[in-house]
Write a structure and sequence with these properties.
Three copies of one chain form a homotrimer. Chain A is an alpha+beta fold and 401 residues long. Chain A contains seven helices and 20 strands. Chain A has helices spanning 16-21, 166-172, 177-182, 248-251, 295-305, 327-336, 353-370; strands at 25-30, 39-43, 46-52, 58-62, 76-77, 82-83, 90-91, 97-99, 117-118, 120-123, 126-130, 153-156, 160-162, 205-211, 214-222, 228-237, 241-243, 266-276, 279-288, 394-398. In chain A, a hairpin with a 6-residue loop joins strand 6 and strand 7 (90-91). The B-C interface holds B 35-37, 40, 64, 66-71, 73-74, 85-88, 100-104, 107, 109, 112-113 and C 175, 177-178, 181-182, 200, 203, 313, 315-316, 318, 320-321, 323, 330, 333-335, 337-339, 344-352, 355.
């Protein structure tokens, strides 16, 4: 099976990319946005319904009732599960059918029924699901350090929804050059630490580095003291996790001297989950262990000021205007107008070496998954506290280190 | 030709279901909604235009002009037919071309032209059409008793339009269990007669019964006097006609003792017509021969009170909310979220025996039609008055009867 | 290769119609509507971006950046070209890559990159492009007389956009009968000259005439003096150019005696450009060499009065209503509801002889293009002033002339 770039962006069952992604726990929702009603969610091309029964257990079931196909999105949530509105079949969170009110009492029929169901775990405000081939024995759902409370401050954003292929977003993180070009005039670049990495006139050096979990992009600039360098790393944890140098030094105009130590005390972790080939969700977790008591309030205020600064002329009807000045909008313009990888004509150069490394790694992972081998990076070592960290260093360290 | 459930929901020419439906007169409009302008209507996947010429004759023609294909929806209605706006070709209701203003006077060309046309009949406020293989010699358009005035009160509702497959609606009527489950908390169940059949705690017995015209569902509960039973029947007249136990005893809170006689004096007849695989129209006729002078006004008031009673929470963005409490909305949620029969995964049990019987009957009818035999139920016997009735009994009769 | 009508309406690369149209310069925009921002435009199924660099040069490039596929619609316009927002690649109007800010200074990589680009010419307020097989050596872009200033008054309308196949519009001009039928009650027919050609009661004679550039439709009526005739010609210059008898004698209620000379001093030239099979653009140029100083102001006032006169009844929900009374809306109803030529069932008669001639001519042109021969009408002879005219005579001339 020769895997090409064309296999990467597809997510349906039976596709190279889809079968690879199905080996992992994927974020499918946030605790805060899961109310006391069923939540329709599409994951890897499958229509599902996410809910929490009245005992507090999470369930992720196929959306169409196993009986006659009515959508469980309109089901009633009960103590023991969710009940289809049409004929009242009651399913527990594992997909077992507990009641069929129209059947004779004592009937064994319900024991033969299985509603499609997927294992679900909740962790630090995010809800993860496993859609893979071994639902009875899924791989461990990793204890991501920023998600498991150990004294810092944590912020989980509401899910953001995008209407283009997930890999356009993912590979963008293996491409540091866009930072100082696309985002060079954004608010980030006006800030004390950020202007070290957002300047097109004096861009940082960078190198992609293979890691056990995937890869990272290491950006460096000469430090303010001899023999030191400023470092900003972006990590890509396969299959679809990111940690970017999105720190208070970049965003919140904190004193960059705070970074002159073992690195940032701020983590910005992102989980991408494809809905289908043309849509994905993005979940972000910020975790901060530093001394600022109101870091997230400050960040929120700064974000509010980071609106697009671009003047829109009266005759300008381009649908994505304005975008300049707001990093998120800039990314949507750049990635959302790309075709799927593998379908686009491209000309890659040396500055694309991060993207090239990532695609090669993903092609190998797809191939390994297709061959029944463990793809790279399924496992992250836990630290002494049983936690898993993506080691994206942001801070100052000895030059050449 | 092995017919499966997958053949049932398709309605285009050349499909099993479509060729079967083409053997019958189908309702395509209502008298009240046909104004003095052409009415675009899609029937069994064909784009047509329905109109009444100035002499009063009804026509149902192909929508695209036989000349160069402009839509007759924008034609002018005249004494003798409809005139295409582009070059003024005039067609009568039978599709003959009467005038071609741009051709030389006396030209014979128009005699060679035939616009697609279908026989149309008007009956009691409904307009029926026959799209089948024998337009010159169509089968008789049945004299449905509720449509032919003989002294009672009649109410024809405006056409209702649905955006899902017609058979989801049709087979729902062969499934009485949904009544006390899906509709169990609706307004109907709060009413004096209705609560006999809408209670999930004490549901009625039921049995599907094959009939010459198709089948009926007979629901029974013990009567209030020894040796009697309450009966509520729903009849399915193939291919797409329904009469449901939708009576004033159910809806209008009339004294149920009125039913202690030969049965209801109220008929609620329904005609389903597919526009295409994903849309259908529903035409309903209510006919009442009892003593209440203002039965329809009362019914209208009751229907107005039967709004969904469900509270919609501020975070609830589900598109079909609210639905609980209104029988029509409840049906749309249950049927409109089902995939086409034959495409859905299903698990049918004993309580689905009505649906199972109906599908088998329809598969056999499709097979018979495909083989050139007369499918079951094309003909209904007329009674002494020349009328055809679907015999859905609603009332009280001797137990075991 | 047997060309049929089905080959005519398709415009994509590799289709008969598309490869034929690619041999010609096509109008793709107007000078007035091209602002200082990139303009997304779809031509013959290709997504392009039209812009003018800060030195004033026009460029028409592929919309997706050759690097990683981001849309140049969001690019920055600079002195030397357009710059992709993602990584700052700068392209000049000929598609050469001038800068790649993320690559090492002195890198030769950009010399290997070619962005898709097409030759563009500006003429009298219109912008033409050539999407054909010989971009280095395109055929000459014709000096259309109405577009090249030589003393008269010129009016270029903003591009009009239509959502149906371009050939429905084009062949409509080879069909004079629709004028007095479809448009018979329009404002045009109420006017002094127009009522000679817009009357269904007394229609003009007409004949299609083959010409070196394509064909013309010659409409005639007896003149007001013996031995004279009124003449109104519509010319079709292959592949997609029109000049119709859309003159002040028709529109502006000028004294028809003004036409009793060598013909109209008014030209109404139209250029059709397909966006894809279901959309096209129409560019119109009016050029007037007569004595009226404010001809276009008068015309604008008259057009404003030519609104649809049709009453729309409250129950009339037909989407294209009203249309009667406005020639442009009438054309949209007639053409916009037609299917693509070759897909529609049709019955053509003697009055369709203009359309029949046109289709035959286009089929032959497609066949010639496919065979590598020069199709009819690629070249128009220039007159002594180096100008090209479509000779649509409108005026009075000797009968039989």
């Amino acid at each position: 099976m020769a895997i090409t770039n064309s296999d990467i962006p597809h997510v349906g069952a039976g596709t190279g990319g889809g079968d690879w992604l199905r080996r992992y726990w994927l974020a499918v929702g946030t605790t805060r946005e899961l109310y006391d009603i069923p939540q329709a969610v599409r994951v890897l091309g499958e229509d599902l319904v996410l809910f929490r029964d009245l005992k507090g257990a999470l369930g992720l079931l196929g959306r169409s009732c196993a009986h006659r196909g009515t959508s469980l999105e309109y089901g009633d949530i009960e103590e023991r599960g969710i009940r289809c509105p049409y004929h009242g079949w009651l399913y527990d969170v594992s997909g077992r059918c507990l009641e069929q009110p129209a059947e004779t009492k004592g009937s064994e029929f319900c024991h033969k029924v299985r509603q499609a169901s997927y294992p679900v775990r909740e962790q630090g405000g995010l809800i993860f699901a496993y859609l893979g081939p071994h639902p009875e024995n899924p791989p461990p759902c990793l204890n991501f350090s920023p998600l498991v409370d150990h004294g810092g401050q944590r912020l989980v954003e509401d899910a953001r929804h995008f209407d283009y292929n997930w890999f356009n977003f993912y590979e963008n993180s293996a491409d540091p050059c866009h930072v100082w070009i696309l985002h060079g005039t954004s608010g980030y670049g006006r800030q004390s630490w950020g202007n070290r990495f957002f300047s097109i006139d004096d861009p940082p050096a960078f190198e992609p580095v293979e890691t056990p979990y995937g890869m990272k992009i290491v950006m460096t600039k000469p430090g303010s003291e001899d023999g030191t360098q400023f470092v900003d790393e972006m990590s890509l944890g396969l299959p679809s996790i990111l940690q970017v140098g999105d720190t208070p030094y970049v965003h919140a105009e904190l004193d960059p001297q705070l970074g002159v130590n073992a690195g940032s005390d701020y983590e910005h972790l992102m989980f991408l989950t494809p809905n289908d080939d043309d849509h994905f969700m993005l979940f972000t977790v910020d975790y901060y262990t530093g001394p600022e008591p109101d870091i997230f309030e400050r960040l929120a205020e700064i974000r509010k000021r980071e609106l697009p600064t671009q003047e829109v002329k009266p005759y300008d009807k381009r649908p994505l205007m304005p975008f300049r000045g707001n990093v998120r909008q800039e990314d949507i313009v750049a990635q959302g107008t790309q075709d799927l990888v593998g379908l686009r004509a491209e000309q890659l150069g040396p500055s694309d070496r991060g993207v090239i490394m990532l695609r090669k790694m993903v092609r190998e992972a797809i191939e390994a998954a297709a061959a029944g081998r463990d793809p790279k990076a399924m496992h992250l070592d836990e630290n002494a506290e049983g936690l898993v960290k993506l080691d994206s260093f942001v801070g100052v360290r000895p030059a050449g280190g």
